[in-house]
Amino acid sequence: MARKTYSAEFRRDAVELYRVTPTATVAGIAADLGIMDTTLSGWIKAAGVPIRGQSRSRSSAPPPGETPEAEVARLRARVGELEAEARKLDTERQILRAAAKYFAGETNW
Q1: What angle do CA 74, 76, 77 make, to 5 degrees?
Q2: CATH of domain 1-52
Q3: 56: which of 12, 50, 74, 108 lies 20 to 30 Å off by Cα?
Q4: CA–CA distances in Å: residue 57 to residues 3, 62, 63, 98, 104
Q5: CB 11 within 8 A of CB 43
Q6: Residue ranges in the chain assigned as alpha helix (H)
């Protein structure tokens, strides 16, 4: 497979998109841009931008010293974030469905 080269502007824009989108993942942005996630992560590391989520532990245990009230507040905030993201994704899915119906109606096979 031939190695692709990308302009410096494209690389900067891809890294900036990752940096300014706090909920985005490297894999998600790479898929949106049509590049490999390893390529994007290399650009991000070279730009000195920390990659989110790499140092997180996978356990559901609360941080040491967290009170039960603080844990409840943290979890409620997380639930709110997830509900907002679910609403956004639902809206995006509805838009894509409408667009697919529109374009399918225009096709004269």
Answers
A1: 65
A2: 1.10.10.60
A3: 12
A4: 35, 11, 10, 39, 45
A5: yes
A6: 8-20, 26-33, 37-46, 68-106
